[in-house]
Design brief:
With 623 residues, the protein is an alpha/beta fold. The protein folds into 4 domains: 74 residues; 336 residues, 3-Layer(aba) Sandwich (Rossmann fold), CATH 3.40.50; 147 residues, no CATH class; 32 residues, no CATH class. It has 23 helices and 17 strands. The protein has an 11-stranded mixed sheet with strand order 3-2-16-15-12-4-11-10-5-9-6, sandwiched between helices. A two-stranded parallel ribbon has the order 1-17. The protein binds adenosine-5'-triphosphate and magnesium ion.
């Protein structure tokens, strides 16, 4: 059907010299000549009037056709990079809809026009600057100094406001674009609307762009939501910004372990599994002792070993369930210890362990203590190896200014920064901006971002289990390839159920493949995003991913053959000529990949709401 419809589609060549204008001039001249003949009494009045009207009608008709050709050629100069006041955004927003920018719905006819243009040099068709004024585009066209090919946005004369139903964005939105293509601009537009909608807005910015932060701050203040919460892991000033507790929300030690292990990207292996169970045991032990786990505390205990926590846990058992002579009872199960081999406290601990394992009633034994005992009895060398590999992660997360801001101590009087956690941010409907400063330390930025995303999964899961999905959480992750981890994949997969609307921006698939270990893994993650906004993309794998998502269409191709033939066999020269047109339909990418690399700044193709293909441009919000 589509094949046929592409042949039925009117085939015109809008991009050419406007010959109609010449014809219109001739008709106009003819009409003037008719008027002259009448004035000279050469022609009867009725006759000249009739011919005059005919000439004028044809002059208008041909003039209009020529005007349309010239207008289409003016449109080839595209739209300039536009600045827009924030107040305008409010007028463009509609309840329950997301405004994506200005543009048009991309149809097969636009692909056809692109193919026509690819056969000629579009620059040769562009009008001189002064002519754009005739079409009301005096200052709208793209200036020569701007990046990108202007004609892509000029394929459609009627630009509209692009709105899509907000629910379409539940399944995650991916913004792809090379550096300086306009990811920041697109994100500013989307988060400004989220702020105005009164969503909880969380922006994770690994690079820490001051321009984007300023825009975020202004969006919050202009919407009457006050200054946003500002988290910066490298902040040494204990009076500015906030402290964040990423381990505040948990129900089990396993969640804490998962959150911390999310720092390590890739598939779990034997090492990560053992490290996970090790962190889980320590976290569970702290929880059992009614001590809130923090990164610093976990780091300290994992470094020192399980002995201290185990001793406290066993003391609790002994206090509650041991008889006066528990030591004697416990000692009877132990082999004699050589004098001086162990310190007094080590000997005492062994005694306690023996009491727990051999004397204490099985009903009084707990899973947490059992787990701690496994670590206690584990080969010390192997345990040391595992913890030696975990320690750099903890050292990274707990040393320097990050130690104070990421493992906040409420008793630290010298630190006046308020302590927040993601749950309290969601409950108070606040806006959070996290600069991760990846330019100064990529490892720390990536680790902090990963843990925060892990925390968000925990909070969203908890809210979902409690049936609290009334608050919409808009999560934005810029340079997502720096922080992509299992929690982010989970948020993209299931976040919508917990009320999280996620938008991730990144430059290339190759960056993500590097982090996740393979191109397939990267594609799998990106495949989880229901919506795609493609800005200028330069590298081939990214372009291929985008064009595959957009799909194909039929375009028609006209092959023209001209032939001449001269023959002298009859003694007289004889000439023959022929012309043939062959029109065929070919299936092509609806947006040829090379045009993705030619988009001007802030212009995009969007695949939203399960198949709606849009061409748009998003202005920069200036104040
Ligand atoms: N407020 C503004 N005023 C003027 N120009 C701007 C403004 N914000 C962005 N731009 C311009 O828009 C273009 C895109 O900038 P943007 O920050 O969106 O890039 P990006 O895709 O996020 O790049 P990167 O990957 O380097 O972060 C740049 O040329 C930039 O100079
Ligand atoms: Mg950016």
């Amino acid at each position: 059907m589509r094949n046929e419809s592409s042949l039925i589609r009117r085939h015109s060549l809008p991009y050419r010299t406007a010959y109609e204008v010449y014809a219109a001039s001739v008709w106009l001249f003819a009409s003037a000549y008719m008027a002259y003949l009448h004035a000279q009494h050469v022609m009867p009045r009725e006759m000249s009037a009739l011919l005059y009207i005919v000439c004028i009608v044809f002059a208008v008709k041909r003039g209009h056709e020529g005007w349309l050709i010239l207008r289409d050629r003016s449109l080839l100069s595209g739209r300039r990079f536009e600045l827009m006041p924030r107040s305008k955004l409010q007028t463009l927003m509609r309840p329950d809809y997301l405004w994506l920018g200005y543009g048009f719905v991309w149809e097969p006819k636009h692909t056809q026009k692109l193919h026509e243009l690819s056969r000629i040099n579009p620059a040769s068709l562009m009008l001189p600057d002064f002519m754009h004024r005739f079409f009301g585009r005096g200052d709208q066209y793209q200036k020569n100094e701007e990046i990108g090919m202007p004609y892509i946005h000029g394929l459609e004369p009627n630009e509209i406001e692009l709105h899509r139903f907000l629910k379409n964005f539940e399944g995650g939105t991916l913004i792809l674009g090379t550096t300086q293509a306009g990811k920041g601009i697109a994100l500013c537009n989307l988060f400004s609307q989220a702020v105005l909608r009164n969503d909880v807005v969380i922006f994770i910015d690994p690079k820490g762009s001051p321009r984007v932060y300023e825009s975020f701050r202004r969006a919050c203040t202009a919407a009457g939501r006050g200054e946003p919460l500002n988290y910066h892991p490298g902040n040494r000033d204990k009076t500015k910004g906030i402290r964040l507790d990423p381990l505040a929300t948990f129900s089990t030690g396993a969640q804490i372990a998962t959150r911390i292990m999310s720092v390590i990207p890739g598939k779990p292996d034997a090492f990560t599994q053992f490290a996970w169970s090790c962190i889980k045991t320590f976290a569970d032990a702290l929880i059992e002792l009614k001590i809130k786990p923090s990164l610093k505390l976990l780091s300290k205990h994992i470094n020192h070993g399980i002995d201290d926590l185990l001793r406290d846990l066993l003391l609790d058992r002994i206090e509650h369930f041991a008889s006066e002579n528990w030591r004697e009872e416990a000692r009877s199960f132990m082999a004699p210890i050589k004098e001086g081999r162990l310190t007094e406290s080590q000997e005492e601990l062994l005694l306690m362990v023996s009491f727990y394992e051999h004397v204490l009633d099985k009903k009084q034994q707990t899973l947490v203590v059992d787990e701690c005992l496994k670590v206690f009895h584990h080969s010390k060398e192997h345990y040391a190896k595992i913890t030696a590999s975990l320690m750099p992660i903890f050292a990274m997360l707990t040393s320097g200014p990050l130690g104070d801001s990421f493992s906040p101590d409420p008793k630290d009087a010298a630190d006046s920064r308020p302590i927040w956690n993601l749950e309290s941010i969601i409950l108070t409907r606040s806006c959070l901006y996290c600069h991760l400063d990846s330019l100064s330390d990529n490892m720390i930025a990536s680790a902090v971002g990963s843990i925060l995303l892990g925390d968000l999964v925990g909070v969203a899961g908890k809210r979902y289990n409690l049936g609290k999905t009334d608050i919409r959480i808009s999560l934005f992750v810029d340079e997502a390839s720096n922080v992509c981890n299992n929690p982010l994949i989970e948020i993209l997969n299931k976040g919508a159920e917990g009320g999280i609307y996620t938008t991730v921006a990144m430059q290339t698939i190759a960056d993500l493949a590097l982090r996740l270990g393979s191109q397939d893994a990267a594609r799998m993650v990106l495949g989880n995003c229901n919506n795609l906004i493609a800005l200028r993309c330069k590298d081939r794998p990214t372009q291929d991913f985008v064009t595959e998502t957009f799909g194909k269409t039929y375009i028609h191709q006209v092959d023209t053959t001209l032939s001449t033939h001269a023959d002298t066999h009859a003694g007289l020269p004889s000439f023959e000529g022929g012309a043939s047109h062959k029109r065929t339909a070919v299936r092509e990418e609806i947006i040829p990949s090379e045009y993705l690399g030619k988009l001007p700044n802030g212009q995009f193709f969007a695949f939203v709401g399960g198949g709606h293909l849009l061409k748009g441009r998003v202005p920069v919000i200036t104040d």
